[in-house]
């Protein structure tokens, strides 16, 4: 049985790269009726954020990535499994105790010098470090990159496995946990590649079966640099708050490093799982293309009913009356790509937006004065009556239709880009429309 895992740390918002790792791990397991494990790696208490574990669970559920088994690393540590593994390595001569003060107050990660001065001492306490053998080859077949990757141990540093406080570093915990949980396939980001020879040695020294390991290519920003966690575009929560739908984000992420056998782009999660084939992993770095994400989101928005969109828009238009919003939704549905576009497209319905006088055309005063007089004379305030009255006015005065309606649009909405203006006028009502026209003429 294929068993995969997603093992995030509760240190902040989930990065788009993390979502991709979780999604591919989920699909790899579920495609073959296997198990998907969520393991929270929370041993770095200094960096853990409040409710970090709960936030990870919530965001994965938002995207439909339900796990079969759940573990928290700090709970697992209570049975002494990591200390036991570290002591086993020391007893075998494959690890050693070190009492050196960690540089930069950190024991996590690599030493500055490849060989630690304590490796040939006979200490009986302190941090436990891996004793990397000299002049050996360490290799594995990467099932994502589809190639053998090899290191010479002369380039692999003696690395801390167990800190002096008894807590494991990632390099020990990830190996022990994957073994104890029978993880068969490990998917992770390419930035973990330098750690792989360390993990391979720990697997070997502990006598564990090495799982299939694959490193996903880096997601690049549009400028060609690695997509940063510090950029808002890289945060899943940031994208959701910006009005992107979970199904659109997920579909977009599906194709950031994987491709189907045909040119198909649209997948539900269920369809993706059914279609998923590891042979589809791409070897080149994908680009985070915001325009493509907008396209996906626009597609999924337009698949929803007006009522569904209205409910979603309430979060982005807290001042809006739901009944009024129900009238506006059909007008903007085809014109927005994400829910947060609502304010720029239709915020004028709820708050008057002062027109920039520079936007008006040279005949704006004549256009607006004539429109105000014509609209004021209407006793029946409906879209068809408004259309008929204004078209008749344009013909009678010899106005250019485009210029007339653009000036009207700017006066009413404060922008050149709005829903159909006569529909908007009908919804705003006679009193508010005339008030805005009068204000624009000042």
Automatic annotation (TrEMBL):
CDD domains in UniProt: GluRS_core (cd00808)
Domain of life: Bacteria
Record motif 'HIGH' region, residues: 8-18
Residues covered by the Glutamyl/glutaminyl-tRNA synthetase class Ib catalytic domain: 2-295
Entry EC no(s): 6.1.1.17
GO MF term set: ATP binding; glutamate-tRNA ligase activity; tRNA binding; zinc ion binding
Any GO BP: glutamyl-tRNA aminoacylation
Protein localization: Cytoplasm
Reaction equation(s) it catalyzes: tRNA(Glu) + L-glutamate + ATP = L-glutamyl-tRNA(Glu) + AMP + diphosphate
Binding-site positions, ATP: 229
Cofactor(s), by name: Zn(2+)
Binding site for Zn(2+): 98, 100, 118, 120
Span of domain Aminoacyl-tRNA synthetase class I anticodon-binding: 309-441
One Pfam family it belongs to: tRNA-synt_1c
Chief place where the protein resides: cytoplasm
UniProt cofactor note: Binds 1 zinc ion per subunit.
Subunit structure: Monomer.
Job of this protein: Catalyzes the attachment of glutamate to tRNA(Glu) in a two-step reaction: glutamate is first activated by ATP to form Glu-AMP and then transferred to the acceptor end of tRNA(Glu).
UniProt similarity note: Belongs to the class-I aminoacyl-tRNA synthetase family. Glutamate--tRNA ligase type 1 subfamily.
UniProt protein name: Glutamate--tRNA ligase
Origin species: uncultured Microgenomates bacterium Rifle_16ft_4_minimus_37906
